[in-house]
Amino acid sequence: MARISLRVTGMTCDHCRGLVENALNTVPGVYGVYVDLDEGLAEIDFDDGKAGTDALVEAVKSAGYEAAVAT
Predict the structure, then answer these.
(1) Which of 13, 47, 52, 60 suits 27 as a labelling partner, its CA being 20 to 30 A distant?
(2) Which residues, in sequence order, are CB contacts of 38 under 8 Å at separation 6+?
(3) Average pLDDT over the chain, rounded to whole?
């Protein structure tokens, strides 16, 4: 079990937030997603034996947004 925060750029509305949440939820091993539109952050709980950071970032990119690990 792992948790990661991604900085997501390009989200402007609740529809955008929903697209990012849906994209992340399609990644095998993800079991919890919370996207904070105001902060531009996505918190993801996942099985790190099934999903990795690259897959999570790619899922966000496939939804049309940019993402990077938040520091």
Answers:
(1) 13
(2) none
(3) 97
Q: What is the mean pLDDT of residues 3-12?
A: 97
Q: What number is the average pLDDT over the span 55-62?
A: 98
CB 4 within 8 A of CB 71: no
DSSP notation for the chain = -EEEEEEEES--SHHHHHHHHHHHHTSTTEEEEEEETTTTEEEEEE-TTT--HHHHHHHHHHTT-EEEE--
Q: What is the Cα–Cα distance from 47 to 28, expressed in whole angstroms?
A: 9
Residue type, 25: N
Q: At 40, which amino acid appears?
A: G
Q: For the segment 11-29, what is each residue's pLDDT rounded down to a tens digit?
A: 999 999 999 999 999 999 9
